[in-house]
Predict the 3D structure of the following.
Amino acid sequence: MPKATTKVKSLGDPRTFRAGYAHVRKNDPKLKPVLDARGLLRFRPEGEPFESLVESILSQQLAGSAASAIIKKVRALFPDGELEAGRIRRIAARRLRAAGVSPQKLSYLKDLAARVVEGTLDLEALESMPDEEIIEVLDEVKGIGPWTVHMFLIFTLGRPNVLPVDDYGIKTSVQRIYGLSELPKKAEIEKLAEKWSPYSTVASLYLWHAKDNES
């Protein structure tokens, strides 16, 4: 018999997002004005898992415009712009380098593609796994650390309880909104997130919004 697929909550379901919004708004008086000012976000997870991971790797340590430019050049290497594991594995390294991919990121992309092609990494299976297992599985891939996995969990899978404690935008918003004298440490953010759980992703999305819209 085929193995039953576990149904995992996603913020792509508006009911789940509304529940998270209400939970954070009720439990965190400091964050409540941010939620009230913005209202319910229209959040929709998107992207094919392999392409999302490739784009995350290409975006590491780059400003948004620079990352977008390199992603566009890499996609242009393929007739339909599709980032597919077999193609990434086969393409000559010099062509990726010419598109602006650093030697380090090139090795990351080749490692990711090889794992997918050889079947040691089943990206489709991730969709039914708990967050902790996904983090464990992807941590084995070269160049995929906590930040990249958190972005994948939030923006590709729509997981509701993700806390990207290492993200600079999250840290700066927490510092400002909670009146801290310096950027918060991981433990401080985790303590605040006790109010947000099991909807830390919702809080994170509004913290990013607050950072993008600060005066």
